[in-house]
Amino acid sequence: MNTPSSLQGAVPGPAADVHADRPQPVTRHALGRVAPSRLISWLPAVLAAGYVVAVLTFYGVSARDTAVFGAYLLLCVTLPGLLLIRALFGRRRTLAEEVALGTVLGYAVEVMTYIVGRALGVPLLVLAWPIATYLAFLAVPRLRWHWRGGARPHAPVWWSWALAAIFCYLVAWSAWSHFSIGPLTWPDLVGYPDDGPFHLALIAELKQHMPPTVPIVAGEPLFYHWFVYAHYAATSWITGIEPMVLLFRLSMLPMLAAFVVLVAMLGRKVTSSWKVAVIATAATVFIGAPRLFLGSVSAFTHGGVHDAAWGSPTFTFGALIFVAVVLVLIDLLKHRSLDAGAWLLFAVLLVAVMGGKATHLPMLAAGLLIVLVVSTLVERRPRWGALVALAMTAVCLIFAQFVLFGGQRQGTVVAPLAYMGDIWHDLTGMPVETAAPLLPLLAVTAIYLLAWGITCAPVFGLLSEPKLLLRPDVVLMLGLGAAGLGAALVLDQPGGSHLWFLWAAHPYLATLAVYGLVVALRRARVSRRAALCAAGAGTLCAYAVPILCGVRAPLSPGQPVSVLFLPYVVLADVLAVAVGGMLMLGRSRQVWALVLAGLAAIGLPAAHHVRALSRMDDGGDRTTAAEVQPAPAPGGVLSAARWLRAHAGEDDLIATNVHCRWGFENPCDTRQFWVSALTERRVLIEGWAFTPTNADRWQPGLLVMHLPFWDRVRYDTNEAAFRSPSTETISRLRDHYGVRWLIADESRGGVSPDLPVFAQPVFRSSDVAVYRTEAGAAD
After folding, report:
1. Could you tell me the sign of the dihedral formed by the alpha carbons of 326, 331, 335, 338, in that order?
2. Is residue 62's pLDDT more than 70?
């Protein structure tokens, strides 16, 4: 086959020249102004920003909030962070990469400064760090030149357009999947996914207290990744924007933008190619385990940044910072000389990951350990940089486990293949609580591993150049991917939280898969046309095999589990026929690479294929807000909560009769957090599903949201105050537990009409009433 030079230039080896991808130096007119072509390079960012503003306006964000948030992000996070990046990490980067890294460092420093300021009772002390940064970079001569940044590479314009398109896709997906089902008005806001009020309650807690506790059950320690909530709290203090607007609309968008740029930067650093980096970034967004069935099998491809961004702020915040950690670490592993600034940057970002999403720390430790083993075997001595990084990671991991998480397991248990119970439920329709027979369970495990095997198959293209497998960056990322997939199969946690390990590995699995594919195509001298044909055939298989096989999950009663293997057998037959045909045509050198190209087209955009198949299968229907929340919330909750927020002291304690999600009272779903979220005050007992005590009582097979409250005396005292109030019950709440306010949802029933006799009514909105428990109210 002929090998076009364009493909060869796009797929450099570790030491290959990359002139085809190298940006040209800035051209200037005689008057010294930048050429119009460079001004055009700003157009993608400008149009993406305009698109974001239009989406936010359409979904209820005021122009004032959007403008203030943009000014805050630029002046209080990105710009001071960018200056510090230039001073600490003096590498050649594009402006977009500097801005993204500066934003990440800005988040990290902001959180640490806010923790100190909030602990001192001066939350706006968080502004000291950008002010001090500006003063230092204006006053110190050696720092002044960082305002200009010096010479830097310029990205190709098409690269900027590609990243802007990926980011705009994420914005559109956010609008379709989250903004549209969670309006910022009450009670429609209750249609937002059930974890939303929990995140909002933690933001409120971090706004008012340091150190924080769990606001939904007074006295419960907050053993959780809470740094992102400190960021939200700092943002709210600085801008005056409502926390719900930050959480449900604004703050995630710059994180997604920075994530896209940094993943592309990682791809370029590893592959030395702008083109491959863009493909790897797109693959990161769409990666998943391909589902070759019709029907709903969400356990296969749910997760990753496209699904988890708004549902788990801790994941997105941690994943963003961790990409920066890996970028800095790769530089430290490549350069053996001491770089104090880079090590300081690595330490700051590592601490931010520790409190942002500590899930990444054991993965990083595993990757570094593999780097040490490989370097010791190959170079006959360990890389000291990997050894130092591993020691720092171990310190952060120990601190996180025994200080931030109090040494508790948080419901995490070692239960190999326990997650296969969820897969079993998706594929067979049998309840998770029903133990699957061993042989069928192993069959389901094999199917899941087959699916991920398709996605990860292109990584084996690196075998075409075995030396690549010895590079520390490749070894590190292989370790991250293996640790993420292994943890998902070995651990179990309430709500499938152990899957965060797997989803955290997506950028590194996707980057290596794309890199392996491209290396294999280059070594086999495959033409671009042949590669595109193979990818097209793979895409066709991703849709044709599920439709033609017609295997629908969950299976119908009586269908054997073995029928689930049919699509994979058919796919294997198709591959066998394709391989045979190519061998008959005498193209044996290209067979391996073309098969990998076909598998990559099935596996890397698996999340997209699944969504498209789902739309085709269900006729375009999707879950609406009404389906998410079948019963409306009382209309007076927001007004009553806002009144309490305005009149209650920041340390005042509230009691409520609301413990179950509205519409989910039988059995009681204790993921109810709206009272603490909207009042921004601690509650004696609200919902308790996500508390450390409740998590530690959980065992595989149980539903954490249906476990009863563990302190029966406290629960009965709380309920008696509403159902059978008396001087004694109200006094016990006030004097023994410190409750100052009652908020009663009378639409639930069971609220005694005598409550105003023993507690002082102070506010009412519809079916929701607020009372004071002050002494003498009964008189």
Report:
1. negative
2. yes
